[in-house]
Design a protein that fits this description.
The complex is a heterodimer of chains A (445) and B (508). Chain A is an alpha/beta fold and 445 residues long. Chain A is built from 20 helices and 14 strands. Chain B has 508 residues and is of the alpha/beta class. Chain B has helices at 12-22, 38-46, 62-67, 72-84, 95-100, 104-112, 131-153, 178-191, 227-237, 249-265, 273-283, 286-291, 309-323, 338-345, 358-368, 377-386, 411-437, 445-451, 461-469, 472-488, 496-505, and strands at residues 2-4, 26-32, 55-59, 88-93, 118-121, 165-171, 195-201, 217-219, 241-242, 302-307, 326-332, 351-354, 372-375, 390-392, 458-459, 493-494. In chain B, the strands form 4 sheets. A 5-stranded parallel sheet of chain B has the order 12-11-10-13-14, sandwiched between helices. A 4-stranded parallel sheet of chain B has the order 3-2-4-5, with helices on both faces. Chain B has a 4-stranded parallel sheet with strand order 7-6-8-9, with helices on both faces. The chains are: A alpha/beta (445), B alpha/beta (508). Chain A: GO terms for molecular function: 4 iron, 4 sulfur cluster binding; ATP binding; metal ion binding; oxidoreductase activity, acting on iron-sulfur proteins as donors; oxidoreductase activity, acting on the CH-CH group of donors, iron-sulfur protein as acceptor.
């Protein structure tokens, strides 16, 4: 096809004035995932206020997270960081008896250069409890990248020999080694579903980072194959490759039936397995999605960008027949997401549409300008802009829901479309009362 | 360092942003890292605001750490000036800028040379004040700025209005029922035949702040924001102010009497006695309601009160003096207003709690076991855990505390709302007791069997475990759909795989 040469992705970078969640929000899903963990966010009232409000009702369920709120004495170094942290961690140990404590470094600990990585090993030995440090701060990272910093820190703790599980002389363990380690935090049902898909292809999952308990961290030996399930895990991938000498399988992410198929196919390819029934399985899922796809085919969508899932979601929606005007994204790792971008390009070729513009570090103000001009059928955006856009007659889907909903694998493809089509279905239903009130003005203010 | 899970009042910049976003055509620029603009989400979600929140961030990132903000803040200010042409731009420091110690004042001065808008730096220190104190301070700062400006330009209007008039000070965005309270306050002043000169900051224009001295007096409904401004106007223009919260019949009466005396000091003799009587008797149902036999049941019931100083003090008074309920203890998290609070409630309850530690409040509730709690969202959840009903009377709040229907806490209609709130909290508590006594609601076992498709299909242990993880409110539906699907395929055992298959194929 002659379009393919023109369809190279275009990357732009704006001012970085965009709205997103602070990366410390990752504690909200990670403390639930890692059952014996406790997350201590070392920061200020600002961090606490964000978590308290963003986590909503979860905060009342005695979460295994707390703030170590820095006071003026901490900032001016009148208090000793080590002693202060020791006091708090001992209290946590006594009250909650966690298997591991995560310290989440914030903007403030960065600025005052609190040496968390230096203090942790000493304190760890002192109080006999593993302490893992992750710097998930708003100076460097956006939203889901918080999980990336935590998993990268955890990767260092994965044991790298299987000596404690297998006798040294047993050479057969290499045969069992013929498997993969998956990284990325997913809810248990998704873990089960993906495991089930892989087991159908006789693929052995040797471990999952993170596991449900800290004590069950997978063994990662040099040469092991690792693969990510989420597009925002580039630091983790780098750590696994450089520090654990693992081999990274670069594949599109298992989001949407197309992504899931490619993900599994790529693993099979690397492990020399001929996939069985994979194409049929994908076709089957597509067929079951038809009812939803008919609602969005030919409709346009604009990603303002805040959680790094944007490329994968856009690729899936283009495959569903949508027109993507813009893919805003906080941070674009072209190497880690290489296979995903390639699949996006292929999908555009297949559908004979132009490759959408990928805007890194977007500027929300400029984006609103473009939205005003383009009048897309759907804007995927954060909550700060959702209501004002709705009031201007533009359908929106709140982007954070994609981070918390189950969207991976074949089984959950429907859930993505359920989310995407919800505003369209709802606003269709409301035509009679609100269509002439919330219209699209020529100038949006 | 302090171990903290929850806080009653937010960081200082939230207070500044609440003031800035309440005014019309005022834009705030936060000097903050990525993600600190969560305020916009709260405005947009809790208040369901139809407009974009006029708050942007001048992002502090690695480069700023290395080289300082340099031109970045100034560029952001001048850019916003061009894009939005606001009347006023407020540069808002955050915890991050507090420690970076950049000379923000210098940025403001340099930027203001290029902008059409006025530019000021919010004078709040993250480590010294909380959200409420910061809002009080910022409001005073903005008012002072414009009064000084008017003085220089000689546009200050000191001519009093011909008819008695008032400024209402301290209605803010994200305030607890502020929008509803405002409606009732307007009605109150209308009834009292007093003109409203200005309402600040809600929907006010900074351009008209020079008209503030025209009013005969100022009215500050909530202690948390506005007192500093009222005091300043008193010091500078000798404007008297009323700082009684008209919440509850007794407080409303005190408010009106105070207004009456202020007016008489200005040689305007009014007698509102008759009005107070009529309103208390007919418009407010609260007095009659307390008297009615239904409310005899409330005699000797116990309650505790916790919230901001304004609402907790007024609520305690209402419970004790207007409903005859025994308040075991009352407390506030407004540590800075401790003295006032003590003095307000010291004769109404035996113990006073001043703390911002929710654990302490929780322990106290568990220890004293009241029949009902009147507090914030936190106390509501403590109540849930302890099975004690709770009426929410103060921030911090949830989206459900921004109701669509008219629910003031102030004024005569407010007394009706509060009476309902109190009554409903207690009766619900009674119902629970009775249910306990008589063995609870219908047992559900017999119901579920008839709702299920049929019992011929078995579930594998793994599938059953998975089903258990599905949230309760959809579990029944998932179970039925899966069973129907399995039946149609003539499976007799539902395994995990079949569960997934059903999810993929059944259109729910």
């Amino acid at each position: 096809m002659q379009t393919s040469t023109q369809n190279n992705p275009t990357f732009e970078c704006e001012t970085g004035n965009y709205h997103t969640f602070c990366p410390i929000s990752c504690v909200s899903w990670l403390y639930q995932k890692i059952e014996d963990s406790f997350f201590l966010v070392i920061g200020t009232k600002t961090c606490g206020y964000f978590l308290q409000n963003a986590m909503g009702v979860m905060i009342f369920a005695e979460p295994r997270y707390a703030m170590a709120e820095l006071e003026e004495g901490d900032i001016s170094a009148q208090l000793n960081d080590y002693e202060e942290l020791k006091r708090l961690c001992l209290q946590i140990k006594k009250d909650r008896q966690p298997g591991v404590i995560f310290w989440i470094g914030t903007c403030t600990t960065e600025i005052i250069k609190m040496d968390l990585e230096g203090i942790a090993p000493k304190l760890e030995a002192d109080i006999q409890l593993p302490i893992i440090v992750a710097r998930a701060n708003g100076l460097d990272y956006a939203f889901t990248q918080g999980e990336d910093t935590v998993l990268a820190a955890m990767a260092h703790r994965c044991p790298d020999t299987n000596s404690k599980h297998f006798p040294q002389d047993n050479k057969k363990s290499t045969a069992i080694d013929n498997g993969i380690i998956i990284f990325g935090s997913l809810p248990e049902p998704e873990v089960k579903q993906l495991s089930y898909e892989l087991s159908k292809q006789n693929i052995n999952i040797k471990g999952w980072l993170p596991s449900q308990r800290y004590s069950e961290l997978p063994i990662i030996a040099p040469g092991d194959y690792v693969i990510g399930v989420n597009p925002f895990l580039s630091r983790t991938a780098t750590t696994l490759m450089r520090r654990k000498k693992a081999r990274l399988i670069s594949a599109p992410f298992p989001i949407g039936p197309d992504g899931t198929k490619e993900w599994i196919a790529k693993i099979c390819n690397v492990l020399d397995i001929i996939p069985e029934g994979l194409d049929e399985r994908e076709a089957d899922i597509w067929q079951n999605l038809e009812e939803y796809i008919s609602l969005i085919r030919g409709k346009s969508v604009f990603f303002m960008g805040d959680n790094l899932l944007e490329i994968s979601l856009a690729r899936f929606l283009i495959r569903c027949g949508m027109i993507v005007y813009e893919i805003g994204i906080p941070y674009m790792d072209k190497r880690y997401q290489g296979a995903e971008i390639e699949l996006l390009r292929k999908t555009c070729d297949q559908r004979q549409v132009k490759m959408p513009k990928i805007v890194e570090k977007p500027d929300n103000y400029n984006q609103l300008d473009r939205i005003r001009d383009l009048q897309p059928d759907l804007v995927i955006t954060g909550m700060a802009h959702a209501n004002p856009l709705e009031a201007r007659g533009i359908n929106t889907k709140w982007s954070v829901e994609f981070t918390f909903a189950q969207i991976h694998g074949f089984t959950n493809s429907k859930d993505i479309l359920e989310l995407i089509t919800r505003p369209l279905r709802r606003n269709n239903g409301l035509k009679a009362i609100s269509d002439n009130i919330y219209t699209r003005p020529t100038s949006v203010n | 360092m302090k171990l903290a899970y929850w806080m009653y009042s937010g960081p200082a910049h939230i207070g500044t942003l609440r003031i800035a976003s309440s005014f019309k055509n005022v834009h705030a620029i936060m000097h903050a890292p990525l993600g600190d603009d969560y305020f916009n989400v709260m405005r947009s979600m809790l208040e369901r605001d139809r407009n974009f929140t006029p708050v942007t961030a001048s992002i502090v990132d690695r480069h700023v750490l290395a080289r300082g903000s340099q031109e970045k803040v100034i560029n952001n200010i001048t850019r916003k000036d061009k894009e939005e042409s606001p009347d006023l731009l407020i540069l808002t420091p955050t915890c991050t800028s507090s420690i970076l110690q950049e000379d923000l004042n210098n940025f403001v001065q340099r930027a203001s040379m290029e902008t059409e808008s006025d530019v000021i730096l919010a004078d709040v220190n993250h480590y010294r004040v909380n959200e409420l104190q910061a809002s009080d301070r910022t409001l005073e700062q903005i008012v002072s700025f414009y009064l000084n400006k008017a003085k220089k330009l000689k546009t200050l209007d000191l001519q009093k209005t011909t008819k008695p008039s008032v400024n209402i000070i301290g209605l803010l965005s994200l305030g607890f029922h502020h929008q509803h309270d405002l409606v009732d306050l307007k009605r109150l002043f209308n009834d009292l035949d007093i003109e409203i000169n200005q309402i600040i900051p809600e929907n006010a224009s900074v351009k008209e702040l020079n008209l503030l001295p025209k009013a005969w007096f100022n009215f500050v409904p909530y202690r948390e924001a506005g007192l500093l401004t009222a005091k300043r106007l008193y010091d500078e223009f000798d404007m008297p102010y009323v700082d009684i919260t008209p919440m509850g019949l007794l407080n409303i009466k005190a408010t009106i009497q105070r207004i009456q005396s202020i007016l008489s000091d200005c040689n305007c003799v009014r007698n509102y006695d008759n009005y107070i009587n009529l309103q208390t008797k007919y418009v407010s149902q609260a007095a009659w309601f307390s008297r009615s036999i239904d409310c005899q049941n409330l005699t000797g019931k116990t309650a505790i009160v916790f919230g901001d100083a304004t609402h907790a003090a007024a609520m305690t008074k209402i419970l004790v003096k207007e409903m005859g309920i025994d308040v075991l203890w009352a407390g506030t998290y407004c540590l800075n207003d401790e003295q006032w609070f003590q003095q307000q409630v010291k004769d109404l309850c035996s113990k006073i709690i001043i703390t911002d530690d929710h654990n302490l409040v929780g322990d106290m509730i568990a220890k004293t076991e009241p029949n009902a709690i009147f507090g914030t969202q936190m106390e509501r959840h403590i109540g849930k855990r302890l099975n004690i009903p709770c009426g929410v009377i103060s921030s911090p709040v949830h989206i459900q505390n921004f109701p669509l229907s008219y629910k003031p806490f102030l004024g005569y209609e407010g007394t009706n709302q509060i009476a309902d709130l109190i009554y409903n909290s207690f009766t619900l508590g009674m119902e629970d007791h009775l249910l306990d006594l008589f063995g609870g609601h219908d047992t559900t076992e017999s119901l579920t069997s008839t709702l299920s498709a049929d019992n011929l299909i078995k579930w594998s242990p793994e599938a059953l475990k998975e089903l258990g993880k599905i949230p309760g409110f959809v579990r029944g539906k998932v179970k039925r759909n899966t069973e129907k699907f399995a039946a149609s395929k003539e499976y007799d055992l539902i395994s995990l795989e079949i569960m997934y298959e059903a999810k993929e194929k059944v259109n729910s």
